[in-house]
Amino acid sequence: MEPDIRNKRRYFAYICPDCRQSVIAWRDLGTLAEGQNFIKCPCGKSELRVHFEPHRVRMMVPCAYCGRSHATICSPKAFVEQRALVFSCKESGLACCFVGEEGPVFAETARLEQALDKMGDDQSERGTFLDANIMEEVLGELKDIASRGGVRCSCGSRKWTFRPNYSSVDLMCTVCGGEMRLPAATADDVDDICCRETIVIHGRKPG
Questions:
Q1: Mean pLDDT, range 176-197, rounded to an integer
Q2: 44: left (phi over 0), alpha (psi -120 to 50) or beta
Q3: Helix crossing, 102-119 with 187-194: angle to 10°?
Q4: Three-state secondary structure along 100-140?
Q5: Which of 67, 120, 155, 165 is most enclosed, with most CB atoms within 10 A?
Q6: For residues 148 and 150, what is the distance between their CA atoms, to the nearest angstrom?
Q7: Which of 86, 193, 198 is nearest to 136 (CA)?
Q8: Is the pLDDT of residue 141 over 70?
């Protein structure tokens, strides 16, 4: 069953790699469904491309971290129904684009702005992590939740591993291969994981 696109709109946000300003815009889903759409930065040096197809949505997303554009694909159902979709740079784990409802998209963009402010413009000065103290706190909270048996996968498994990135931590189920990304860039990310009693990885099997 195809998602209902009547009277709905999606907000898009990214940070321009050139001028470093946030680009936030909305499109109604009727317009998006007509074909390829472009969301341009006012500086004219970057653009987000959105191509709505019958069985997938393809995007080319500018990335403020590496300066390149990343190709992403998601299902039309997730594109239409999720409150906020987050697309990340594979090199850093840092978010580079948000799609969804107005409130969540604006909130996520504000957090990304904080992370990029920390990062600065000098790539040669970048360490292993965006903020080593934040990463340490996030990993400490993850360890505490795991010690209580609070990490599991929706496939039913409690076997998992993790991989720290530049500004996030990936959790991977070792049974079904499902993955989940925890941001680890700002104090808000620490607050978020501190509030969790459990963490459920998005499995690849129904659970």
A1: 89
A2: left
A3: 130
A4: ECHHHHHHHHHHHHHHHHHHCCCHHHCCCCCCHHHHHHHHH
A5: 165
A6: 5
A7: 193
A8: yes
* Inter-residue contact 151 to 201 (CB < 8 Å): yes
106 within 8 A of 24, measured Cβ to Cβ? yes
Average pLDDT over residues 180-196: 89
Domain spans, the chain: 9-120, 132-201
**Which residue type occupies 95?**
A
Q: What pLDDT does 7 receive?
A: 58
Q: Which pLDDT score, from 0 to 100, does residue 207 have?
A: 44
Cβ(153)–Cβ(203) below 8 Å: yes
Residues 121 and 177: their CA atoms lie apart, in Å, by 35
Any alpha helices (H) in 38-85, and if so which ranges?
76-81
Strands ordered across the beta sheet of 160-164: 160-164, 168-173, 179-183
Higher per-residue confidence, 163 vs 117: 163
